[in-house]
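lol ok so funny story. i was supposed to be doing the assay writeup but got distracted and ended up predicting the structure for this chain instead. priorities right. anyway since i did it might as well share w the group, maybe its usefull for someone
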Amino acid sequence: MNDHNLKPWPKGTSGNPKGRKRKLYNDINLKLKEDGYEPITKAELVEAYQIIFNLDKQAIEELKKQKDLPYSFLLILKSMKDPRVRQDLRDWAMGKAMEEIHSTMTVQPIYPDLEPVKRDEEYLLPDPDEPETA
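and the output, tada:
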């Protein structure tokens, strides 16, 4: 190896300060649009999921055989056997089901040495920053 004319970089600097140029999503999107691909809207995707959930097993198997479907759609159809995938798709397309939570808690006074004072028909503790009136 002929490295007698090479000089090391100063400590803390890089030989490639800007790094490798990354392809931006915008560049990729422009290229795909030029090739004739169009983005799908969220509404279209949600509608597709809702239709898939209404299909029987035979219809899903027939769809899997079609070659003109987008590859990501085929992947979703093939993964529908997994109940976790179905649940995730349902949650994403239709929102998570509301869960009701019941809880109880014990409240302890902040100032246990102070007596509660009745103000405006409610029992409140006196304000510690307020001067006492005798």
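The two ends are 95 Å apart (CA to CA). The beta strands are 117-119, 122-124.
back to the writeup now i swear
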